[in-house]
């Protein structure tokens, strides 16, 4: 099939080896860094691991065909040295970097990539990421256990070819997800169900020790394919550490990063101390907290009512409830997400304007409703603040504070008129605007058990989303993002949500840690990008 001809400049970029980012100071090699967590790590199997705690560890042990520039949401080639996309957007051909070795010493080949992707799709693996591969030809059969993906092949040891059933501009992001990371078949089969405890990858670090309930030790991979990386000789993850105890240890210089973050009860104290505050790095997350309104139920079937709710909520006051650990949101996408509309102000906080809208909708005297919320702090307090704001315009919202599972069940079933999404709010799987639409705003998610709790379904916007994701030429990325910006502006006109805030990440690091600040609030390596940080001393 004829290949898409990339521009000379772009082709050159795609063929470059991955390089270390510019550092705020000169990098030093050596030393061991210590990170703590309250809970033990569940697994380091990239096909199975799917929580914020193990993401960055898995990322340091394994690699995928694609990766991100450290500390950013910018895609770059990983194990792939280069790639080509066919003009119809249905065929992706990856050329692998030669000489890349697994931790067991064997050289990685294209067959390993084919095995790894098929393993993630195979229902026997029970991968929570199986659905991400739905655009690959033969997915339905493979996901049902009827054999490997028909759209995946290795014509030679250095080439991998994917054939898609539909154009999908998110495909390169999927190739950077942990579910796509490459594993050696012989190591998986030797370890069996224990592969998550005995991981073997191609990454910058390899697991040297795992004492359950105590610690994990990762040692530098001397054969790593990116020369000069990592800088650390090792890093240790200590588990079973209560966050308050971890903070005290960090204050004493005994550990380098409390992985669970600064405890909420200590946040004001830490940020109020200049010496401690200067060691805290703040960065945006790919996160939005929002209130959903079930558009299929009166009175939220009227757009004026939904817009009134948007105008009633005092977002600045709610940010104060969580000690300023967020910024007010004005649209579904967070500011750090590509496609965010920078010049959009959103709905103003205007109670009188909100009352006027309710009157126009036929609810001059307001109405009674219910606001569902997860019952862990600070979510009930946030719900109470929202409740007070709604009361000021005549909406009496009874709070239903329930366990997370019960709120999710009510949202999926469509029985909750309103839901505050906190504690369950959307954090993107990958840094692309499409990931904020399909599951939580698109028609596909507005089904029984789906995550689109507003049950909002705009088929015209679904068609525009499909059109946007059919633009697969990287040279037209700006055109695609502009289309996504328009989609989210149209969503805000329909107002199925009231976006409330975008949480910020605050990472406390010891004075001896070096590297660009962005590495400590890396949007795709939570909580820290171990491969590129270093010890200054």
UniProtKB/TrEMBL annotation:
Coiled coil: none annotated. Transmembrane segments: none annotated. Residues 75-445 form the Solute-binding protein family domain. It is found in: Periplasm. Residues 1-24 form the signal peptide. One of its GO terms (biological process) is peptide transport. One of its GO terms (molecular function) is peptide transmembrane transporter activity. One of its GO terms (cellular component) is outer membrane-bounded periplasmic space. Keywords: Signal, Transport. SUPFAM superfamilies: Periplasmic binding protein-like II. Belongs to the bacterial solute-binding protein 5 family. This is ABC-type dipeptide transport system, periplasmic component. It comes from Paracoccus aminophilus JCM 7686.
